[in-house]
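Progress note, project year one: complex with fe (ii) ion.
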Amino acid sequence: MKFDWVKKEFKTADEFLLEMLSYGKPIEVSLVGAFDNKGRGSRRNIDLDLHQDGDYSTQYKNKIDIVGLYCLRSSFAKTLITNSKNILTELILKKGEALIFDNKVCKHGRKGDILDRILLRVWIQKSSE
Ligand SMILES: [Fe+2]
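Model obtained:
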């Protein structure tokens, strides 16, 4: 991977999924949205401080190399992402846009009401290691 993070557009979720698979082996594919009132942050309408995926899990700790988030339905919720120089960028993902990042380098978070925003999230473990 030649980038810390990148935002790019895909015509379909298939295209996004196939690009994610080109980076390595999928460890989890899930939907991120406001589905529950308790439990995993990725399923609740709460702000998330900067973190790396797998931080709070024993199963996935240090195993997630690359994360892809593809926006299926958008809202005004802000996605926060840092790069290797610790520079913070805020962005609002629109339908069809994806954020792909190196989970060992970048930290990410979010701010604002999720409302009916839905993201398709893929966790990848690099195959070259
Ligand atoms: Fe996360």
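The chain has one domain: 5-126.
The chain has one helix and nine strands.
No further modelling is planned for this target in the current period.
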